[in-house]
Amino acid sequence: MLDDRGMDVSSDEEHTLSNNGDASQACFILHKFTKKSSSAVEVSPREPALSVKRKRGGKQDISLSSLSPCSADEPEDCGVWRMEAFKCTWADIEANIKEVFEVLNTRIFKEVQKFIHDILFYDAQLELYLSPKNNSYPHVHGNERSSRRLHVALLCLRNIDSSDHTMTFFKLKTHLKKANYHVANLLPHNFLSKNGVGAPLRSMLKQIVGINPETTDMDILASWYRAESDAKSPIVIIIEDAELCNSKVLAEFVIILSEWIAELPLILVMGMATSGEAIRKLLPGSTTRHLHMHNFMFPSPDEYLEGIIKGVILRPFPLFTVGHDVLRFLLSQYDKYDSTVTSFIRALKMACMEHFMSQPLSFLCTISLDSPLENVDYLWRSVSVLPSMQSKQYQSDRDVDKGTVMALSQYKEQKEKWSSTVNCILAAGNLVCMDPVKVFAEILERQAGGIFLNDANSSLNSDILCNELNGKTCLIPALLKRLRDSSEFTVNKILMKWIELTEYIPEWKTEAQQILNNLASESSLINTTEFISDGCTGSTRTRQLATGINSIEDERQESIVSNGGSSEMNVSNLKDGQMRIHGDAEPLNATRLYGTPSMQKKIGVRMHGRLSASLLEQMMRKYLIPFEKLPLNEALCFQNVSSIKELLIGQPRQGIQQNIKCPFRFLKCECCNATISSSMFDSTILFHLVLQNGELANLHDLYESFSAVLRKDASEKQKKVKKAHHGNSNGATQHEVDRALVQARFCKAASELQLVGLLRMAGKKRSESVQLVL
Amino acid sequence: MRHTFECEGGKRQMGATDAEIDSPKASKLVSEDGMPTMTGECANQGNGTRTPRAVNGQSSSKRDNGSPGRETHHRRTRSRPTLPASTGPSPDQQSSHEEERERSVQEGVPGDISPDMLYKHLIDRFPARNSEIKQLLGFFGEQTDLMLPLFIYGGASTGKTSIILNALRMMNRPFAYASCRSSHTPRILFESILNQLTKHTRSSSNNFGSSKKCDKLSDFLGLLCDACHAAALEKAGAISKGSTCPLKKSGTEKVDVDKFPKPVIYLIFDNVDLLLDWSGGLRLISALMRLSEFTGMENLGLIFISSLGPDAFFSGTGMLEPIPIYMRDYTDDDLYQILLKKKPKGELYSSFLSAVLKPFSRVTRRVTELSEALERLFQKYIEPVRRGIVKPDEQGKRKLFSLIQPHITSALHQTSSFLISAHSPQVNVQKRPYGDYADLGFQLSLCSKYLLISAFICSRNPATLDATLFDSTGGRSKKRRRSSQTAVDKKEMDMQEKLLKGPGTFPLERLLAIFSCISADFSDDEEEAELALMDHCIGVKVSSDVLMQISTLINANLLYKGSSDPFEGAPRYRCNASEELIQMVSRSINFPLSRYLYRL
After folding, report:
1. Cα(A719)–Cα(A619) distance, rounded to whole angstroms?
2. Are residues B240 and B337 in the same domain?
């Protein structure tokens, strides 16, 4: 889920970036939280109202500013355009992300809502059934009802890191509130052992009743519920991330709730990071006895990521594209480190920001060239300098103008086709049970390796169909193989899906439609032949047909070789072959040629599977062109992996070490270089000395060498001084003072290094030594 | 057991000392033959006659049940001849008893249910609790009969609270009920009692507050007097208005309360065993026990309900011990009766119960759990009958039994655990057989998988073995001693002891060292040569991301981080994940876990 706080951070960051102009210097400033004036109604802890306000305030500032110029001669307007382009692009991406999350989450929300509704209905029925009609003591509590269990919906978030779901529970709350339920949202920090069970009860009462109660008596809730006019709607208590709560307090809270189940329609909703079974470890058996649990599964992070890939990255509209290498890096980060979609999105935003910061022409992503622009000279000059545009020789600005417009439309068209093709591959992969994220990663990898390229020299068969890439087994050949062998039903489904997805590639659409039509007509034909061929066993016929197909296969191989790679003709050749069989078959008795209908049907379907597989292969070759090969890619596609890596990979210790080791970069000092000299910082000198000494260094030796470094310079100075004042009597005392100073400086440097954590005392036994910690 | 109600003729103040209760004066008040004296008389005894109640007969059954701690009160009854142990009143006794009851209703208890009907109703509602209900009703007596504090204890779901509340509600007695669970602080406890007595309703007009702020016990005592007075006044008013009580002076509208026997106000404290965990809980309990003494009000009926026996509260404290009533666990026969009662058309069910109840009652004796577990099994049991395969006759029942037998064991396992019913469409999971969560149920990043495995190795292996396992230069010694039988035995013992001890703890450095060893293996073995090019050996470097993952694992309770020891310095960690989970994780990344685990 998109975290509002996260967005805040980025916009702050953006601000600092715009001021400093150096992405690597971005730092986070943590402000002290100003407490809101205590109001009676507690806002839900994650009510975005506050952050929205802050964001607005931030945006006003930013809207005035423009991005800092990339080069000295860049006109100011370009900065403004780039800023606008960034805002527009990111707003679009963000809206799509929100939509993806909403679609995926709303399904679960609806399920939860339905569950609550059903439970209530069931309880009401049960009560009606159990309570005798002629009950002479209506005030006596139904025993059955008081022994009822508390219903708990366990929402499994399916990721141990629940940061994807920071907003989910808030959304769930609003969703349930819309259904007129009373909802309270409790956070793990409500369940601390030091505050006891009072804290969650208080928060619950505040949210539901809307008062700041004196005591945390459940009776308040009960009497409020009795007095409530639009009663009979259930009270839902959501506990976010129950696994982070103190289990003792949680258990007590649950038992208290279960005591009131007879009077209040309470329903508990708990978010579980790992699985529903984890509640066994969390709560004691005496508590779980009071609960009746129901499991709900959120989509896994991979499913969210799949949604993001399909809904954001494969969408043709914002022309801004994230390059393959960058995407691969982001995906590998996701896979290896924290499989949360939140960080993926954040990284995507960083990439977007970085692009608009560093690319002078990045505003071409959104600005239309139809309207007259100022500073056109600069624009055309920069465009004509781009490496991707240099192949064409432009005579005048007008040519450049035309060329740019053409390049833009070409880029757009290519992006549309690329997205359609990848979508089709993913759709096919989905139907034959392959992980879409992995398939996508492989597409990127192959594309980066240029394997899909329609290169006449490369031997076609070996690359796209080879089962191993960099020593890994590949999914795409497996996908094609499965597609070839898949059943009629699957082929039918895949083709339907393709037709739906290929609105940007009409030729593919017609091809797919044609195969589909053939398939339909053939299956009807087979159905009719089934009557004719009843009881006929034609093993020899089958063999004939099989050899026929083999010959088609051979022909296909030949044609591939003869065509030198362009597989344009493959499909038509295949179809010709197929038609030939059909043509031959027509005059003959149908049963004689086809053998048993089931076998014939199988072969026919395999035929279509082959056709669709080869169609897919052909499309992959034709449309999966890397964006780096397109004109204007510098302006539209973000390819700088190293910069995004620098932003993402956290190596603070390395940074500290580097800075202490070579502070010259910051100090812009030219006198110092790698050799140790007294002009360096004391801590730098000491760090160098420790490094020279190895892991364990004797403190006294260190001091000696430290003072030697300082003295070397000092003696030179002293010589000069001596030369100036002949025969100074204070030499001895001066020396004493110097020694004390050196000692003090040494101590200071050592403690600085200790504070940073690079140095520590070696231990009790070796108290004279220090240890280097790297 | 005979259903008898007695009253003491003498005048006695509640809150008297133990010596007074045990005095011969008290014991002689019980009638000689153990037969009931007139209950109606007690009500009609007139002004100021206080009648603490005692019950005969029940004491013998109490002793039979072996309940401890009945001392002070029952010393009076012990000298009496033991009554024949019968489960219900004999017909003749019953009829005479009914007459008495009717008379008492006519004479004294206006608008209330007749005691006999009450008894019948309660017995009907709570089967197999005859003796306890009888005992209780005996203690309750009439509206104005004083009562010594009662201490009702027994296991969970044995009907302690329900019986008391049902009885009091049906008798229309004034009472206040407070559970020490919901009232988790003394203030809530006190205020809840006072609110109920003063009939205070929380509403938005009073900001859902209590009638009075009451934080301390001393305040409570004062306020309780007022509240009880008000409640008694109201009740007495109700009595005087609706009854044919001879004390009502016709013509005077105002009721002279002092001249009335004050109706007893019952205060019920549920789950008092929780009070032991409160700070100063024991003191609070002793104060509550002596509430009538402290407030000087004899018409307080104190009832304490606990799941712990009285020994936990009163042994060696010198407190005034209340009268204990033990709610024993249901026997198999009781359970049979109760469960059968829930099913109206029970012939098939009774044969089903006789077949399966025995193994189940060994697992749990809670009626709620049993009925739920048995219901599922019963559906399976009657399925052949529904489908018409088996006829519900004797032979059919035998066949049904043989059909249900294989299901019993699995159903037994389900009672001990709890069931989680899945609501999300299973399609979701089935659709995606790929990926780890098909097994794990949740997703872990590659890094956290390796971290989890290394944590498991750290927890399982002794630290001395790390060099042998992970350092290529420090290989294990080739020479092996031939192990004798005793050495093998000792090793086995050690192994078992180690398993019993559970996972060991380890410092962070060891975890990271093993992590970098095994993740180095993986980057060499299989993973992306090009990625290593792209990002120099990303699998090995311990960056801040890895440390982040450790904290994430701790949050998910898969790793446990101990508090930092002042002598030790750094905190120690422990792997909380089960071996099955680790096996699954290692399978998902093709990690040869068994190669790294040290088995003795």
Report:
1. 81
2. no
| Tokens 């898949």 found at | A486
The predicted model scores a pTM of 0.73
User: Which residue in the set A158, A161, A278 is minimally distant from B557, CB to CB?
Assistant: A278
Q: Do B433 and A433 touch (CB under 8 A)?
A: yes
Residue A372 burial (C-beta neighbours within 10 Å; 0-12, 13-18, 19+): exposed
| In A34-75, alpha helices (H) | 49-64
Which structure tokens are listed for B404? Answer: 């249900």
Q: Cα B370 from chain centroid?
A: 16
Cβ contact B181–A219 (<8 Å): no
Instruction: Tell whether ipTM is more than 0.85.
Output: no
Kindly indicate the confidence band of residue A38, based on its pLDDT and cuts at 50, 70 and 90: very low
Residues A551-561: what's their mean pLDDT? 45
Whether CATH 1.10.357 fits A652-724+731-772: no
pLDDT 10s digits, A121-138: 887 777 777 655 444 333
Interacting residues of B444 by C-beta distance below 8 A, sequence separation 6+: A160, A339, B436, B452, B585
CB contact, 8 Å: B432 with chain A?
Answer: yes
Helix, strand, coil content of chain A in percent (nearest 5): 65, 5, 30
Contacts A147 to B, Cβ<8 Å = 157, 367-368
If contacts are CB pairs under 8 Å, which of residues 493-552 in chain B contact chain A?
Answer: 526, 528-531, 534-535, 538-539, 541, 543-546, 548-549, 552
* Distance (Å, whole) CA B153 – CA B326: 5
* Residues of chain A positioned with their CB less than 8 A from the CB of B526: 471-472
Instruction: Return d(Cα B168, Cα B152) in angstroms, integer.
Output: 15
Residue of chain A nearest B421, judged by CA positions: A294
Q: Which domain holds residue B388?
A: 333-416
Determine, for residues B545 and A338 on separate chains, whether the beta-carbon distance falls below 8 Å: yes
Higher pLDDT, B476 or A590: B476
- The number of CA neighbours under 13 Å toward the Cβ of A541 is 19
Partnered with residue A293 across adjacent β-strands are: A152, B420
Q: For position B107, which CATH number holds?
A: 3.40.50.300
| CA dist., res. B209 & res. B191, Å (int) | 10
Smallest Cα–Cα separation from A554: which of A584, A583, A577? A577
Task: Tell me the C-alpha distance between A404 and A614, whole Å.
Answer: 35
Q: Look at A435 and A139; give whichever has higher pLDDT.
A: A435
Greater pLDDT, A405 or B9: A405
Q: What one-letter code names the amino acid at A347? A: A
Tokens of B230: 């008000």
Contact between B152 and B305 (Cβ < 8 Å): yes
Which chain A residues have a beta carbon less than 8 Å from that of B553?
160
In CATH, which superfamily holds the domain spanning A106-131+144-302?
Answer: P-loop containing nucleotide triphosphate hydrolases (3.40.50.300)
> Does a structural domain hold residue B12?
no
Domain count, chain B: 3
Q: Does B558 contact A274 at a Cβ distance shorter than 8 Å?
A: yes
